[in-house]
Structure formats: structure tokens, C-alpha cells
Protein 1
Amino acid sequence: MDAQIHPEVLEERPPEFIASWFHSGKSFVEQNGWFFVGAGLLFYCLWIKVQPYIKKFREQQEERRYAAFCHKNPDLVRTRQEAMETARQRLQTEHDERAKLHAEKMKQVCNNSCM
């Protein structure tokens, strides 16, 4: 009587509706797989052609947003520009000092090697 309640080998099977969906999806891909490949290639080619236009459009949008921001906050823009100018001047003076030191070192090397 125990043999009738429990089978000798237990099998774990997925629910029937999941198995049927899986098999119908698998058969659909098997029958139409080349269409998916072709559609993917077509989409990729179109994406390559359209991508520069999308990038240009996004850059224009960003420029418009920044222009609107600058129009609303002219004092903030002015302080940013002044800070950038002072940073540029500082970097330029550092570069000039390094160039002078390098020129002096080259002059010394030339004097030592010429003797």
C-alpha cells in the first residue's frame, strides 16, 4: 500500500503552464530566428546612422540649458569666469618660472659640455 502512495523515483517537474510557455517561445524563436538576427542587424545599422544626430541634438539641448542658466545667474557666471582667469594666470606664471629654470639648466649643461 505504501508503494501506491509514493512512487519509487521522485521527479521534480516545472509547473505545466511554465513548461508550455517555454516550449511555445522556443518554437517561435526556432521558426523566426533569422528574422530576429536580420532585425538586430538592421537596428544596429540604423543606430550607427542616427547616433550622430542624437548626440548633436543632446549637445544643443545642453548648450540651451547652460545659456538659460547663464541668463538667469549672470553674477554666478561672472564669478566663475573671474576664478577661471585667476587660475589661468597662476598656471601661466608657474609655467613661466619652470621655463626659466629649464632654460638656465640647459645653459649650464651647454656651458659644461662645451668646456
Note: Residues 74-115 form one domain.
Protein 2
Amino acid sequence: MTGIYDDMIHLPHHISGTHPHMEIIDRAAQFSPFAALTGHDAAIKETARLTDKRIELDEYEKDVMSERLQIIVDNIKEEPRIEVTYFRPDGKKDGGTYVTVTMRVKKVDLYMRILIMMDGNLIPIDDIINIDWHMFETMCDG
């Protein structure tokens, strides 16, 4: 075998006298991917995430909601199980999402304008766009 590197192929491995030996784990880190724009992907996803605009109820719809809330207040001892659709503001950008939940009502606080649910969830009355309860079908709600 005669090649151009035959003169150095059998030389001993060089060990530096000035630099310490690099561990294998540190050597592997040299070849890990580099992300120059850390967080850029997350920012793009956040920008692309859609939010809904808050729906403003007209006076008729507000009256219907008030009547339904009063019916719930009048029947609070039954711990009514209602379905509520309300606006949940987004903490990071304008808008939010509409959420529909079905829960039992513990209390309607008209002074603080919140529904207090049995599980401790608080729903701002001003964010509600719809309330359904089987009792509404048997009563006239305007």
C-alpha cells in the first residue's frame, strides 16, 4: 500500500500541552443545531392564531338576558344546571374566544355582575351572549 498519507498514518495521536482534553458530550454540542432567532417560530404562531371579536348585544337581547338571569335567581335553590356561552378575552392580543360551558349555578351576584358556578368558576355577566336552561322553554322570556 503506497499512498500519499503513508508517512503520517502511523504517527501517534497528538495531545495538546496547552488545551485540556474535550469531553465527548462537549464535542457533540459543537454540532447541535443553531437557532439564531430564538422564539421566532412561537411569535409567528402567535400572530397567526385567530381570535374572535366581542359581540355587543342589542337592547332586546340584553332584556332577554336580564329576564333569564332573574329566572335563575328566582330558582337558585334548585342549583340550576345551565348552558352559558360567553366571551373569554385573550390575554395576549385583541379579541378572544367564545366558550360554551354547562354547569350548576351557585349564585348570581348582580352587584359584582358575575355568575358564580358550583365549581368555583366565575363568569362575568357582561361577557355572556346566551344562557340556556330547560326551564326557559316552559316560561315566556320575551
Note: The longest strand covers residues 96-109.
Protein 3
Amino acid sequence: MTLRNIVADLTTLAQDAIVNAANPSLLGGGGVDGAIHRAAGPALLAACRALPEHSPGVRCRTGEAVITPGFALPARYVIHTVGPVWRGGDRDEATLLACCYRNALAVAARHALHRVAFPAISCGVYGYPPEAAAAVAVRSVREALAQWPSMQVTLCAHDAAMAAILDNALSAA
């Protein structure tokens, strides 16, 4: 069981899978989602469009995870998960965020993937407070790694400030 934190561009990591902090349509957007779509190339958008919709415009519900090939990325696969929008913390945001991490790792396990890298899900435009999100991420990943001890999970921070927040969460857990 390995859990580590790095500062890097998620789209450059040669992992079995990287996790996309996606929107429900899976058709790209800003932040990590847009960066992954740009780096993977147009085949990723086509693969996402081919996924079935649960309801109009929704291919992945909040807390769930789906997988596509990585196409032009160094990662073999992209696991897409939709984090919760922060609404003050009293609308099951922590539970939904934990589901993102657990369900993404469950998808990885079903596909015999062992090296998975995550961004800070919901910490961008979805407004989740980074310290609270980091605590949920570390706790959820550690719980999942107890079930899948051969996995190596990387928490990928986009900058030193987020890396420090993740380091604090790792130390506190």
C-alpha cells in the first residue's frame, strides 16, 4: 500500500490511470478536466460522448466513476469522477467526495490497474475548501488501500500550496 503526494502536471504522469475531476457531461470543461481533454486529444471526447447518459447531459453522476482509454496521455486510462459542488458542507458533500475516491479506486481494481493519480477533486470551480477536501481524500484513499493493498496512489497537487495542504492531511491522518 502506497500513498504519496507530489506537485506535478497530472497530464504528464505515466500511470496506469489518472483521475479526471469531471463535470457530469464528461465532455470537457475548465481546470483539470479541460487540461486532460486537451492532452488526451479528440479521441477522449469521442469516447466520452459514446458513454450512455443517465439523464439528458449526465454520463456520470456525482460520486460515481467511469473509465475511458487515455489516448494521447502517458497514462493508459482516464477514470472520470464528478465531485460535489460545495454548498456549505451540510448537503452530504463529504460523503459524495469520499465516494469519488472510493469509486475511482474500485474502477481501477476492476481493471487490474495498480498506479493511480488523483487531482484535488472539487477544489477548483466546485469550491470545496482545500483543507477539508484533503482530509476526505486521504481518509478515503487509505480506507480503499486497505482493501486493495497492491495499489500505488499519488495525490497530485497543481502547486506548492495545495501540496502543503495534502502533506498536512497525510500527517494528521
Note: The beta strands are 2-7, 17-21, 65-69, 77-81, 115-118, 152-157.
